[in-house]
Amino acid sequence: MATYAAPIPQVSAHRVEREESGWTSWITTTDHKRIGIMYMVLTFVFFCLGGVEALMIRLQLGAPENTLVTPTTYNQLFTMHGTTMVFLFVVPMMAGLANYFLPLMIGARDMAFPRLNALSFWLLLAGGIVFYASIFWNPPEAGWVSFVPLANATYSPSGGEDAWIYLIHLTGLSSLIGAVNFYVTIANMRARGMSWGRLPLFVWTILTYSVLLILALPVVAAAVTMLLTERHFGTHFFDPTEGGSPILWQHLFWFFGHPEVYIMVLPGFGVISEILPVFARKPIFGYKAIAASTVAIAFLGFLTWAHHMFTAPIPEAILVFVMLSSYLIAVPTGVKILNWIATLWRGTIEFTTPLLFCAGAIAIFLIGGISGVFLATFPIDWQVNETYFVVAHLHFVLLGGAVMPIFAAIYFWFPKITGRMLSEGVGRLSFALIFIGVLTTFLIQHVIGMDGMPRRVYEYPDVGHLALYNLISTVGSFILATGVLVTIVNAWRSLKVGVIAGPDPWKANTLEWFTSSPPAVNNFDVVPLVRSAEPMKDIRREVERRTAGVPSAGGATVPAGATQVGV
Amino acid sequence: MLAFFTPSSGASPNAKEIDSLFKITLVIALVIFFAVEGGLIYALIKFRKRKGAVPAQIHGNTRLEVGWTSAAAIILVGLAVLTFAKLGSIQNPPNSSPGGAALADDNELLSASTERKLPPNGKALEIQVIGRQYIWQFVYPGANEPDGLGAPYSYEELVVPTQTTVSLNIVSEDVVHSWWVPALGGKFQAVPGYHNYTWFKIEKPGIFRGQCAILCGRGHARMIATVKAVPPAAFEAWLANQKRLIAQANAAAHLARAKLSTQTGAGQVENP
Predict the structure, then answer these.
(1) Are A364 and A438 in contact (CB under 8 A)?
(2) How far is A476 from chain B (nearest CA, A)?
(3) Which residues of A are catalytic, by number?
(4) DSSP classification of residue A550
(5) How confident is the model over A344-364, as pLDDT tens digits?
(6) A221, A241, A508, A556: which sits with the fewest CB atoms below 10 Å from its CB?
(7) How many beta carbons lie within 10 A of that of residue A426, not counting itself?
(8) Segments of chain B scoring below 70 in pLDDT
(9) How confident is the model at residue A567 (pLDDT cuts 50, 70, 90)?
(10) Mean pLDDT of chain A
(11) Phi, psi at A346, each rounded to 5°
(12) Is domain A29-546 annotated with CATH 1.20.210.10?
């Protein structure tokens, strides 16, 4: 990968405090970049733990009537896997990315509340430690949805369920504090000239993510508090013999749980919207439509929770309403996908690893989006819900909408964080393995589900082709895991031997590439005036104008009559 | 071939209707899938970086945006209309066939819930499905005591007459379970404190397998259900036999209890 060596107007600082080092400096830091790094490293560790749990699940299901793990262990494994991936990986990983890049992208020197920011991280760590400490006693086993009455003290007497409640509370508080912080930072700390119409699309999605968290988290916090008092203090919110209702839990959980899906995938969409234009060398197609569809998805996301409850005894009017609102949400989502393809259209696409991960993410998310329409149609949902069809659907949605974009973000922003490039060759290998792994693992699960295999079963009989299909899925999961491993090795090696990146290795569009890699503690010495949604493009043009149009290394052409921008 | 891509179906009208709705949706979905994935792959290949190529600096196209937004909306409106057209035949049970089991007028059923669907003539064989960790119990009509007790019941295997509309009243005694026999239509949660209803009508004798579809604890995977459809006459005979067996077992248990209480002294075994 060629490094970008064109002159970039940077003012050297006159006096910069020496950066603190040593482990205490990490514990006491309030620097958004260090907190961001800690977030990303920690959540990636949890991703690996959740991945190991997934592999154990797939090993157990690799053969019919397998006795590798006990039913109890199996229930604990999928509960830990689901909870980890949602609460300890995807949501906080997005917070980590936002922590590091949001201030840089809007030209701010830190988050609005740096100490609260540190608090968010440490709350997350505390929640994660308590949750994982439960594996030394009794891990939770009621699934990541903890349906009552199964999750109450009668049917889940172990403390694992309480560890789960504790985790939801702490990570919830962490996310809530973080969300307020992001919102305030975006609202108040943008660079001069960065109007709402020039906000980077990743920042738009983080803004929406924050609003969703602020609206959805109090609901689940209330729900798990009710579960806690139900378990220990004799309340009867969910007990039908005392006038409570188990359906209440489903409503409360999914009123949070469905927006949670968009909390996970919208920032992923933001990453795709940032990376595609860079490597297509074209502006994003329909900036306003993409920003508006983000907000539309978030709004509609609050009207569709009951589509998780189509098989529950709820009135038919609700079934119909929720089916229609769920259909409706497919429209802004489809708009996004078509806008992304239009962004690639007539560009000059450079097949870097971040672009590959983004293209793969779109291809995979589309499958999850389409199977979502089947699930939104409630009579069809009656057949395929709670089977491996849903498992396939949610993994396509989350792998395409969140995990693959996270990998794209890792490859795209690693140079900014570390100052070194990740190896492109190894990156492509990792992409190929992950992409093939996802398709092999999850495509066949649609068929497994339609053949009648429910989810969350520790064993299945050897009827039909179930054994073969499950074996294919298990093999796929190990291909996927190998792909993740390759990226870990890549990152480990590149930290030491990676090509020096320079401030702007990709010739990207947003302000984080204006500063050095890694950025100094104060981020920017001078924050440039923002004239468009792609400030770095303006700056590069200005540089080329001042250097009399000498093309920079990499060979971007300057269109005739380009707007001249003062820095 | 299409069966590879569709859920189990076939034995009951509602399952057949869901299956046909699924197939129509599948065709529409496949067209969209290939069009969009095709467009993505075409763009990636056709517009890859080449020498001398200049990227077009397009910021958007409002007419295109409005166009594909409306197109997406129209497709979904079409799907919604289709679903509503099919909904009646999925939710509303038909009358039993002339060859079905003779059924009494079950008018009391109508008051059970407004959500319960009955055939046009109001006659259906009502069976209560009780979910509990980790076994399904089926209670058939025929209570011989005024408080509703004494009705014949069976575990795991539900025996029903063919050509007869069977109405299921699904309840739970402990945690949430989900009733599901793929060939007989969709799944319905058994929730403590609630009644949930579904129905099926099987034309030909056969055995249909299913299992609990919502995590209900450690034995969830073993909570299986079998529906055995037999001709009406055989069903009547089976039901009578089941009643007899239960009465025998109860009598035997009564004897055993009496024996136990004489051995250990009255009052020591209060409620075995």
Answers:
(1) yes
(2) 20
(3) 81, 110, 144, 174-175, 258, 260, 262, 273, 307-308, 333, 336, 455
(4) P
(5) 999 999 999 999 999 999 999
(6) A241
(7) 17
(8) 1-3, 104-115, 146-148, 264-272
(9) very low
(10) 92
(11) 65, 20
(12) yes
Residue A379 near chain B (CB below 8 Å): yes
A457 part of contact set with chain B, CB < 8 Å? yes
Average pLDDT over residues A452-478: 95
**Closest CA in chain A for residue B223:** A457
**Nearest Cα residue to A309 out of A369, A254, A368, A379:** A254
Residue B44 with chain A: CB contacts under 8 Å: 344, 349, 359
Q: Tell me the chain B residues in contact with residue A71 when contact means C-beta distances shorter than 8 Å.
A: 218-221
Residue A366, token pair as written in the block: 């589309």
| pLDDT digits 0-9 by tens, B133-165 | 999 999 998 877 766 677 899 999 999 999 999
How far is residue A142's CA from residue A127's CA, in Å, rounded to a whole number?
18
Of A348, A370, A459, the CB nearest to B32: A370
C-alpha gyration radius of chain B = 27
B77 and B140 share a domain? no
pLDDT of residue A558 exceeding 60: no
Residue A140 has pLDDT above 90, yes or no: yes
State the DSSP code for B51: T
Contact list in A for residue B59 (CB cut-off 8 A) is 283-287
Token pair, residue A481, equals 């895991």
Residue B190 lies in a domain: yes
Residues of A in contact with B200 (CB under 8 A): none
- Omega of the bond leading into A518 within 30 degrees of 0 (cis): yes
At A164 the pLDDT is: 97
Phi, then psi, of A390 in degrees rounded to 5: -70, -40
Residue A554 touches partner B, C-beta closer than 8 Å: no
Cis ω on the peptide bond leading into residue A92 (within 30° of 0)?
no
Q: Looking at the structure, tell me whether residues B133 and B87 fall in a common domain.
A: no
**Residues A109-114: what's their mean pLDDT?**
95
pLDDT higher than 70, residue A565: no
Same domain, B115 and B206: yes
End-to-end CA distance of chain B: give it in Å, rounded.
56
Across the interface, which of A313, A349, A457 has its CB nearest the CB of B220? A457
Domain count along chain B: 2
On whether both B7 and B111 belong to a single domain, the answer is no
Please check whether residue B269 lies inside any domain of the structure.
Answer: no
Chain A contact probe: residue of B68, B113, B211 with most A CBs at under 10 A: B68
CB A537 within 8 A of CB A565: no
Statement to judge: residues B75 and B121 lie in one domain: no
Find the domain containing B24 and state its range.
2-43+65-91
- Whether residues B82 and B180 share a domain: the answer is no
Give how far B190 is from chain A: nearest CA, Å. Answer: 8
Q: Which residue has the tokens 């013999």?
A: A241
Closest partner CB to A313 (pick from B47, B57, B194): B194
Candidates A142, A283, A351; nearest CB to B48:
A351
Cβ–Cβ below 8 Å for B189 and A311: yes
Mean pLDDT of chain B: 87
A395 vs A54: CA distance, rounded Å: 12
- Does B139 map to a domain? yes
Q: A interface mutation test: which of B176, B195, B198 has the most A CBs within 10 A?
A: B176
B251 in a structural domain: yes
Distances (CA, A) of A111 to A238, A409, B142: 41, 20, 71
Helix (H, G, I), strand (E, B) or coil at B164: coil
Instruction: For tokens 């005392």, name the residue.
Output: A242
B35 plus B123 within the same structural domain: no
Q: Least CB-CB distance to A450: which of B6, B54, B133?
A: B6
CB B140 within 8 A of CB B239: yes
